[in-house]
């Protein structure tokens, strides 16, 4: 996954609180700033707020000039790994799921304004008991593709089945919150007849969740695709991943895995219940297998023939074509830009590199400027200024190690640190994702580290097993790349996930094996705070404190550029998912 806590528990505050998410597009030598996402301009700021019951009413606001009808062709590199919502934990999978799946809550986007609203629910949820209890009421008229009503029993079942052994992917926040222990050992799902007492289908339209501890951001968690509804009657267990029953505006009518997927209208979806999706096209045809350069070339040429109705969720402009695209005025109206909500890091394996001075030497030697130039130059992104992405509430701009001032690296300072540590000629195994571009970048990194006095070994790892390998505790590598995006836009789904030493285990996201008792204790303190402003400020301060211990090297906050066909309208950048949302897409005459 180029894989989002806590707000004040009081309902009144949740209803009006706003998280201001400032997405920087300057710094480190390079990007331009603008505020209009249309016509190839960057959106500098996204705001996420919790909406009211009125915000949760459908239909979605009409897009100017949009008309229903026609078929959109979407091209992607890869097929969607999972269709069962409980197994979905990627931005591409979640984006596709918008077309066929609905949850209790979801995000409504209007330009740079993003609002958490009730999707199937009448509002974004009602907390009580200090945030320990949450109540949602389902809207009238919400149905499955077979015409049966969506009920609270379906919602309860959807949550319970995330515990089933065959659900091996997806988020696990809610499962942990409901059990307060290893959820895999606490409960095995509903199929043996056992059920969770703290998820209550109070009546056909009312679902209640009860927790032992406050979870004032539970409504954010419920916007994740993992917790979207699955029909209790229509649940086919493992087979559900092949063809789920639709609750959204479209349904699957044909699929050839890794080749094509076809959607047609779900006639039982009622636009009056949906504040998020406009669902203008009659049909979506997906084709898979398009690598970056062929996809870019196809979209560059998409001003004639059937390519006019072609788009992509995620086929970002290939770095080798970026300057051509940015320099061609004729492409301006077909280019969407945005700032990535993901953070890139070069992780330092703290289990192997235990001397902080050596880690600091790596930070000082790191050639951010040369890496960015190899990726395509300043237009590809900005040098990261913290461990949190600027779109995350609590972000505080900092430059602990002077990398913004000297992004090319400081080999002399690195050598001095190695000498101070008694680690001159320190051996470093740098692992890279074995793609042509990363091969080039590995040469740049090897050269910089050698200049700084390191003995460098370069190790390629196959792209298919990359995250499997870097998530092992006992890995024989010292430095390596990895990305992460907040599951909802506060620091609670970033810093604890990546830097809590108590999470170290094979498969965890503490890729750097970082374990510091002071940091662990501070994570616990911040998680217990109930005031959103206080907590967000604390995450920002903790970000700086972690950086000072040099567990990782902040990389480059990327910019997103994607073309679409000349007859595609309503292609809007999703600032939380780094992807083109399908919700407002329509075909121009």
From TrEMBL:
Signal peptide region: 1-25
Highest taxon listed in the record's lineage: Bacteria
Residue ranges annotated for the Solute-binding protein family domain, each copy included: 116-502
Pfam families: SBP_bac_5
Keywords linked to the UniProt accession: Signal
Region (Disordered): 25-69
InterPro entries listed in its UniProt record: Peptide/Ni-bd, SBP_5, SBP_5_dom
This protein's name: ABC transporter substrate-binding protein
């Amino acid at each position: 996954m180029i894989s989002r806590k806590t707000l004040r528990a009081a309902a009144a505050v949740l209803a009006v609180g706003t998280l201001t998410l400032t997405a920087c597009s300057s710094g480190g030598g390079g990007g331009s700033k603008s505020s209009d996402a249309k016509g190839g301009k960057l959106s500098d700021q996204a705001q996420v707020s919790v909406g009211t019951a009125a915000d949760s009413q459908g239909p979605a606001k009409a897009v100017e000039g949009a008309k229903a009808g026609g078929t959109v062709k979407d091209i992607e590199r890869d097929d969607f790994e999972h269709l069962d919502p409980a197994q979905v934990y990627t931005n591409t999978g979640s984006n596709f799921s918008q077309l066929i799946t609905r949850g209790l809550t979801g995000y409504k986007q209007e330009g740079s304004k993003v609002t958490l609203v009730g999707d199937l629910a009448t509002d974004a949820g009602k907390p009580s008991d200090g945030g320990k209890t949450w109540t949602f009421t389902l809207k009238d008229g919400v149905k499955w593709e077979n015409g049966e009503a969506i009920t609270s029993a379906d919602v309860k079942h959807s949550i319970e089945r995330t515990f089933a052994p065959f659900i091996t992917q997806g988020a696990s926040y809610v499962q942990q919150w409901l059990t307060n222990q290893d959820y895999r050992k606490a409960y095995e799902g509903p199929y043996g007849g056992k059920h969770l007492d703290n998820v209550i289908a109070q009546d056909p339209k009312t679902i209640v969740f009860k927790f032992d501890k406050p979870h004032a951001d539970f409504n954010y968690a419920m916007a994740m695709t993992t917790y979207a509804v699955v029909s209790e009657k229509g649940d086919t267990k493992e087979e559900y991943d092949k063809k789920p029953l639709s609750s959204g505006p479209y349904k699957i009518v044909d699929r050839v895995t890794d080749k094509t997927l076809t959607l047609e209208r779900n006639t039982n979806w009622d636009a009056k219940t949906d504040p998020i999706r406009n669902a203008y096209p009659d049909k979506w045809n997906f084709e898979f297998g398009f690598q970056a350069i062929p996809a870019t070339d196809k979209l560059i040429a998409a001003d004639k023939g059937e390519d006019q109705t072609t788009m992509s969720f995620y086929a970002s402009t290939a770095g080798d074509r970026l300057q051509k695209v940015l320099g061609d005025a004729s492409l301006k109206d077909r280019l969407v830009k945005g700032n990535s909500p993901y953070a890139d890091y070069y992780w330092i394996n703290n289990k192997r590199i235990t001397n902080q001075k050596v880690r600091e030497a790596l930070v000082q030697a790191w050639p951010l400027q040369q890496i960015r130039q190899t990726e395509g130059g300043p237009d590809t992104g900005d040098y990261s200024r913290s461990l949190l992405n600027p779109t995350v509430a609590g972000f505080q701009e900092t430059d602990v190690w002077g990398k913004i001032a000297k992004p090319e690296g400081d080999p002399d300072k690195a050598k001095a640190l190695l000498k101070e540590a008694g680690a001159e000629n320190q051996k470093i195994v740098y692992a890279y994702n074995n793609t042509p571009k990363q091969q080039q970048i590995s040469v740049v990194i090897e050269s910089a580290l050698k200049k700084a006095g390191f003995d460098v070994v370069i190790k390629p790892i196959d792209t298919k097993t990359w995250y499997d390998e870097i998530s092992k505790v006992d890995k024989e590598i010292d430095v390596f790349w990895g990305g992460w995006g907040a599951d909802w836009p506060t620091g609670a789904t970033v810093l604890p996930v990546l830097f809590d030493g108590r999470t170290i285990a094979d498969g965890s996201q503490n890729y750097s094996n970082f374990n510091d008792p002071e940091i662990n204790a501070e994570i616990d303190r911040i998680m217990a705070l109930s005031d959103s402003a206080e907590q967000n400020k604390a995450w920002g301060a903790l970000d700086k404190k972690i950086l000072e211990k040099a567990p990782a090297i902040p990389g480059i906050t990327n910019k997103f550029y994607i073309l679409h066909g000349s007859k595609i309208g309503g292609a809007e950048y999703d600032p939380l998912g780094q992807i083109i949302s399908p919700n407002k897409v329509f075909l121009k005459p």
